[in-house]
Design goal:
Elements lengths: L7 E2 L12 E2 L41 E5 L2 E6 L13 E5 L6 E5 L6 H7 L5 E8 L2 E9 L6 E8 L7 E9 L13 E4 L5 E7 L3 E8 L4 E2 L7 E4 L8 E9 L4 E8 L7 E7 L26 E4 L2 E2 L6 E12 L2 E10 L7 E9 L5 E3 L14 H4 L1 E8 L7 E2 L1 E5 L10 E6 L2 E6 L2 E12 L4 E10 L4 E6 L1
Parallel strand pairs: 20-26
Antiparallel strand pairs: 1-2, 3-4, 4-5, 5-6, 7-8, 8-9, 9-10, 11-12, 12-13, 13-14, 13-15, 16-17, 17-18, 18-19, 21-22, 22-23, 23-24, 25-27, 25-32, 28-29, 29-30, 30-31, 31-32
Length: 466
């Protein structure tokens, strides 16, 4: 029997002398699914490359920032590695497909005298990369660990691989200076009117927004820390890694931040606003500036620690970045394999948009997949499904969901229906609106189809077909 053969069950129904066939299931092999991104399955922990930078690829990518220059994608990231102190300088990687990454080198040889004198740190954290006019602007952080004594600096270059010229401080903070901000985790973006803005901050004082002078690349108002965009109750509730994306189709600005601790509960949250200055709210209208006891339950969680059947999974899934590439949107973030949480990998995921204008991401890393059209018959069968409770940031394990041909679920407690690319699943008291797409199953090393979306109360769900 040919591989492309569709399994059918004959349902003979006489209606006006016409007989009908009813599809029960269909092979997804007939769909335009992605090919294997590498010759063999990629391992998350490869000690042989520890001291071979040319073979690092996605290994040791931490706090990545991305920019597309021509047909090449560049990721700039924190000085990080396993096994020994990292070499300072801001790591650079590049790719032409968002899949195969080449380690290029570093921006600097060492932290500047000014940054070291201020913050006492000898490595760089959480860079941001953009282009203003005809020059590339690289913003970087230097910090004293565990304190507000931090420094955001700027370097510029005429080409994205340098050489880079250090332009000095943009924002500084110090314990006892009377402020609340922590000068780390910058991101610079342009609003719909053409103005430039920088978001920055962390646990200390929350996430702030300040206007940037495109002529200097520095703050317009150096007397103010900026406008508060997001904050949580206290230091026990982590928040950091802000980025803003404007979607001209929805008319919203999307603020993306990370909650939790980077070695385990790190997760990605989203709020949106019609104004770049906020207020940013989640799908239930909860303000991301909430400092009450309920501040653990703000933001739409779109990525969290996860584990699919047959794999150890990942924790520390945070410090994300947006990439708008033509009509496609991507989110990249770091992820620490449960096998060894001190390793850090770069994950790139395709973004899908709900009918209500919220971004959700693929359950699988990007492998070059395009759009795919499916029928009901392609969806019939077993799925590995993960939900991300807003109130539980621990690693979430997959369970099995079986879609039956009659539009019901295997356990009888729910139903499903497909409308174009939108799959709606009712489970118990919850209804999930999801988008269906193609993907490469990195855990089982084969092509598959996926769904991703939100419930009515803003709980994210991932599914991939077995």
């Amino acid at each position: 029997m040919k591989k492309m053969m569709v399994w059918m069950a004959l349902l003979i129904v006489a209606v006006g002398g016409v007989f009908f066939w009813q599809t029960t299931s269909a092979s997804i092999d007939e769909l335009p699914l992605p090919k294997a991104p590498f010759d063999q399955k990629v391992e998350d922990v490869t000690p042989d490359v520890l001291n071979k930078e040319s073979e690092w690829t996605t290994n040791f990518t931490h706090d990545g920032a991305i920019f597309k220059d021509g047909d090449t994608y560049y990721v700039f990231s924190t000085d990080y590695m396993v096994g020994s102190p990292p070499t300072p300088g801001i790591q650079i990687r590049k790719s032409t497909d968002l899949i195969h990454w080449e380690f290029v080198g570093r921006v600097f040889d060492q932290v500047s005298e000014e940054a070291f004198a201020w913050a006492g740190g000898n490595t760089f954290w959480a860079p941001a990369i953009t282009k203003i006019g005809d020059r590339f602007h690289l913003y970087y952080s230097v910090s004293g660990v565990g304190s507000r004594t931090s420094y955001i600096g700027l370097a510029t270059a005429s080409t994205i691989e340098g050489p880079w010229e250090d332009e000095g401080a943009v924002v500084t903070s110090k314990d006892g200076d009377g402020g609340v901000a922590n000068a780390i985790d910058p991101h610079v973006t342009q609003d719909a009117s053409g103005k430039w803005w920088m978001t920055y901050g962390s646990y200390f004082g929350g996430i702030l927004l300040t206007e940037i002078d495109p002529g200097t690349g520095k703050r317009v108002d150096e007397s103010s820390e900026g406008t508060l965009l997001a904050k949580r109750k206290d230091m026990s509730m982590g928040i950091e890694g802000p980025e803003i994306l404007y979607n001209d189709e929805t008319g919203y600005y999307y603020l993306m931040v990370s909650y939790g601790w980077l070695e385990d509960t790190y997760n990605v949250r989203i709020g949106r606003s019609k104004s770049i200055a906020g207020p940013y709210v989640d799908s239930r209208g909860r303000d991301l500036r909430d400092e009450s006891d309920e501040s653990f339950d703000t933001g739409v969680k779109i990525v969290g620690p996860y584990r699919f059947e047959g794999d150890d999974g990942y924790v520390g899934t945070g410090h994300s970045a947006f990439l708008q590439d033509g009509t496609d949107t991507f989110v990249l973030h770091q992820a620490r394999p449960s096998e060894d949480i001190y390793w850090s990998q770069l994950h790139v995921r395709k973004v899908y948009w709900t009918k209500d204008g919220w971004p959700v991401v693929s359950p699988e890393r990007y492998a070059g997949e395009g759009d795919v059209e499916v029928d009901d018959a392609h969806l019939v069968g077993d799925w590995d499904v993960i939900t991300f409770p807003r109130f539980d940031d621990g690693q979430q394990a997959s369970s099995t969901l079986t879609l039956k041909r009659d539009g019901k679920l295997e356990n009888g407690d729910g139903s499903w229906r497909l409308n174009g690319s939108v799959l709606e699943v009712e489970v118990g008291q919850e209804t999930y609106e999801t988008q269906v797409g193609a993907a490469w199953d990195w855990e089982n090393w084969k092509p598959t189809i996926i769904f991703t979306g939100l419930s009515e109360d803003g709980t994210a769900v991932w599914g991939k077909k077995r």
